[in-house]
Write a structure and sequence with these properties.
Length: about 240
């Protein structure tokens, strides 16, 4: 075959290979695959829901509530400046709840490396840090929550108790208070809340069903698209 004939053959094959993808083309594939997408979504969604309800690893939460008090006990009033400072400190506490200054001290004070079965303190610090979260709730408040989520109720209780013990001292160090008896800068509001088993919740099961159904439907559509689009291209070639 001459060079001119080869060039002509390539030109003739190009349109067959370059199939235009339009919305109508994609919709046609969607109509063809709709039934299979629905079946896959129902089946996989149901399986995902069953897994979430019966086979997920256990998860427990323990929460404690703190409030910032920067007013001396012998002061009969609270100034606006003190209130603003307390609100700012509460926000800072939320940010530092899972930072090294808090977590490492909690691991040391609670002897968590040994209690939780970690080989060394650094590994324990990394693991505990991932368990901790904090939130301030409504803006403009001096209250904030620290929550620990762990795979067992015993671990969650030990970690949240250690956080509860060390958090006030850390904040006093940051604020530079030398006498710990002067102003109780951070108070614990009541004991640690009852540990809550969050392994199975309505929200987690629904989320698993939705994610499973969507992933299954998208996968089926992708298979139909590849088979339709590229299959026809090969036939036309």
């Amino acid at each position: 075959m001459s060079e001119m004939e080869k060039s002509s053959a390539v030109t003739e094959e190009a349109p067959a290979q370059e199939r235009e993808i339009t919305f109508s083309y994609l919709f046609e594939i969607l109509k063809k695959s709709a039934l299979f997408m629905l079946i896959a979504a129902v089946v996989i969604g149901a399986l995902a829901g069953v897994y979430a309800a019966f086979f997920m690893a256990p998860s427990y939460q323990g929460t404690t509530l703190f409030y910032v008090n920067n007013t001396p006990s012998d002061q009969g009033y609270i100034s606006q400046a003190q209130t603003n400072a307390a609100i700012s400190l509460a926000s800072s506490c939320v940010g530092m709840a899972n930072q090294d200054m808090v977590v490492r001290r909690a691991v040391e004070v609670g002897n968590l490396a040994e209690e939780l079965g970690y080989e060394d303190e650094d590994t324990c610090v990394l693991a505990v840090r991932r368990m901790i979260s904090a939130d301030k709730g409504e803006s403009g408040t001096v209250l904030f929550n620290v929550t620990v989520t762990a795979g067992s109720d015993d671990v969650a209780l030990k970690v949240i108790t250690a956080i509860q013990e060390v958090m006030p001292g850390v904040l006093k160090d940051i604020a530079g208070l030398e006498n710990p008896e002067d102003t109780p800068l951070l108070k614990v509001v009541g004991p640690v809340n009852s540990l809550k088993d969050i392994t199975v919740s309505r929200a987690s099961v629904i989320s698993a069903v939705i994610i499973g159904a969507v992933v299954a439907a998208v996968a089926v559509y992708a298979v139909f698209f590849i088979k339709t689009h590229y299959g026809k291209s090969k036939e036309e070639q």
